């Protein structure tokens, strides 16, 4: 989930200028290679010239995780089979097997801990309630990653239940991720690698932090409302929130199939495009939403149009007034129950079971102390009656009268806003967005710039985002500035 803030105006982009050449996504080897900050193209170039193996790459990242994860808390679990997968990838490359030339072949990737993997890793959304559960199969996007030859390095920490359990828990807190880290309040949560006391934002913060801190080069996050865009902005990385349905949601712990989407979080637009290209497309287990998925990246450009306003934006940004909150709590109960019922093995089989589990944990004075008011509200819902159906109609109308009308009437391709404040506007319509690093404040805390558009506009957004990234080249590695202890509790 995200955090509504007022947006006073939008900078709007429409296409005609700034063309890109065919070589814009190519790698360069004009500098001395270092795994830190390396792109996937640079890594693949090292593979090609036998200067690096996947096994060496995985060992490097495991060493970095060992050194840094106790500080930033970005990773919840490492795959015990990662080195085996790396060895297998090296053998496939040596044998020149079909598929070994994929851009993600032999590249380690971290997955948010609500994305299912049918392996030795857990899939828990950061909750002890799902620890030990067994999923029936890999998530749709994981199947595509494995087909591309990617190495599943592990699972990233997150806001427990993707931020949909409690209004009181801090950003980046989960029961599993906080276990054994109770010396002070902040040490139990994810930490921004640029300024450790700064807010890491959104529920995909573990994926963003791990990439920013060079514990991996690429990762996956999920977004219902702001959970890719916000942590990407706060941790100086690139995040793509795809059009709902461009990537499959099958096997991903749900909140709302109307708004849920899965996308890449990387250090460059190019890497994010490579990951997105690998995971988009039709999935029979999410057939209705993925049928119209598209992969191409055409040429084009942009002209700046300033000071246009979206109709009813203040209503859209208030989830209670817009009705988004009611729609989400209603959908969550329906779809989390359906997800839990399909698990092969699980300690819990319904939202009611999860609530009871959390109550028991709290009674035993274990790690859960932030409440579960969103769960409790969701459990009181009974599906879509007249009120809930009217809410969905209102949300659709807000999108059509707001962003859709504005962009169509002005023949616009994209809008750009500082930070991730635009997230609710994109969320309720299932629209895509891309965050690109844009700068750092006086304390060194990162902030991003977000490009959003209508459904299916990823190719144009990628082109614009790439142009901005290459023109500014603003991103720098994290500094791990220490805590401001005055901010801890």
Question: How does this structure look, described?
Answer:
With 489 residues, the protein is an alpha+beta fold. The protein has a single domain (10-487), classed as Amidase signature (AS) domain (Amidase signature (AS) enzymes). Helix content is 36%, strand content 13%. The protein is built from 17 helices and 11 strands. It has helices spanning 40-48, 54-72, 82-94, 140-147, 175-178, 205-212, 229-234, 269-279, 287-290, 313-316, 319-322, 324-342, 351-363, 373-379, 386-409, 423-429, 458-472; strands spanning 10-14, 75-78, 108-112, 151-156, 218-223, 238-241, 261-266, 303-308, 414-418, 433-440, 446-452. An 11-stranded mixed β-sheet has the order 2-4-3-5-7-6-10-11-9-1-8, sandwiched between helices. Helix 2 (54-72) runs antiparallel to helix 3 (82-94), helix 12 crosses helix 14 (373-379) and helix 15 (386-409) crosses helix 16 (423-429). The longest helix is centred in the C-terminal third of the chain and has 24 residues, at 386-409. It is globular, with a radius of gyration of 21 Å. It starts with 9 loop residues before the first strand and ends in a 17-residue tail after the last helix. Mean pLDDT is 88; it is low at 1-30, 180-187, 294-300 and 485-489. Keywords: Signal. This is Amidase domain-containing protein. Residues 1-26 form the signal peptide. InterPro entries: Amidase_dom (IPR023631), AS_sf (IPR036928). Residues 57-299 form the Amidase domain.
């Amino acid at each position: 989930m995200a955090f509504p803030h007022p947006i006073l105006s939008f900078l709007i982009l429409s296409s005609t200028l700034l063309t890109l050449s065919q070589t814009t996504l190519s790698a360069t080897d004009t500098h001395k290679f270092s795994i830190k900050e390396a792109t996937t193209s640079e890594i693949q170039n090292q593979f090609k010239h036998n200067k690096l193996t996947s096994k060496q790459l995985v060992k490097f990242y495991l060493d970095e995780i060992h050194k840094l994860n106790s500080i930033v808390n970005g990773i919840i679990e490492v795959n015990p089979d990662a080195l085996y997968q790396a060895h297998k990838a090296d053998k496939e490359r040596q044998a020149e097997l079909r598929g070994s030339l994929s851009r993600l072949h032999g590249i380690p990737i971290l997955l948010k801990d609500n994305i299912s993997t049918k392996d030795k890793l857990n899939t828990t959304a950061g909750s002890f309630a799902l620890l030990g559960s067994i999923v029936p199969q890999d998530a749709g996007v994981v199947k595509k990653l494995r087909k591309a030859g990617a190495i599943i390095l592990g699972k990233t920490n997150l806001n427990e239940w993707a931020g949909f359990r409690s209004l009181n828990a801090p950003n980046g807190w989960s029961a599993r991720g906080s276990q054994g880290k109770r010396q002070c309040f902040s040490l139990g949560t994810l930490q921004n690698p640029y300024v450790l006391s700064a807010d890491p934002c959104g529920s995909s913060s573990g994926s963003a932090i791990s990439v920013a801190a060079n514990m991996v080069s690429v990762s996956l996050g999920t977004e219902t409302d702001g959970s890719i865009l916000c942590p990407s902005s706060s941790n100086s990385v690139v995040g793509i929130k795809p059009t709902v349905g461009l990537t499959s949601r099958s096997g991903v712990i749900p909140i709302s199939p109307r708004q849920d989407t899965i996308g890449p979080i990387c250090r460059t637009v190019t890497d994010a495009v490579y990951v997105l290209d690998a995971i988009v497309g039709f999935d029979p287990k999410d057939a209705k939403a993925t049928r119209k998925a598209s992969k191409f990246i055409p040429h084009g450009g942009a002209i700046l149009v300033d000071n246009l306003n979206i109709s009813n934006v203040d209503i859209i940004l208030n989830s209670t007034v817009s009705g988004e909150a009611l729609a989400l709590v209603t959908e969550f109960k329906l779809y989390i129950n359906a997800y839990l019922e399909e698990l092969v093995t699980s300690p819990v089989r319904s939202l009611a079971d999860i609530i009871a589990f959390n109550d028991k944990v709290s009674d035993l004075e274990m790690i859960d102390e932030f409440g579960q008011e969103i769960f409790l509200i969701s459990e009181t819902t009974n599906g879509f009656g007249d009120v809930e159906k009217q809410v969905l109609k209102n949300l659709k109308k807000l999108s059509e009268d707001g962003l859709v009308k504005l962009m169509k009437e002005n023949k616009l391709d994209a809008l750009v806003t500082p930070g991730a404040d635009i997230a609710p506007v994109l969320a309720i319509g299932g629209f895509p967005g891309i965050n690109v690093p844009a700068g750092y404040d006086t304390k060194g805390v990162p902030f991003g710039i977000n490009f959003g558009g209508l459904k299916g506009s990823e190719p144009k957004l990628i082109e614009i985002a790439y142009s901005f990234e290459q023109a500014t080249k603003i991103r720098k590695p994290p500094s791990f500035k220490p805590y401001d202890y005055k901010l801890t509790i």
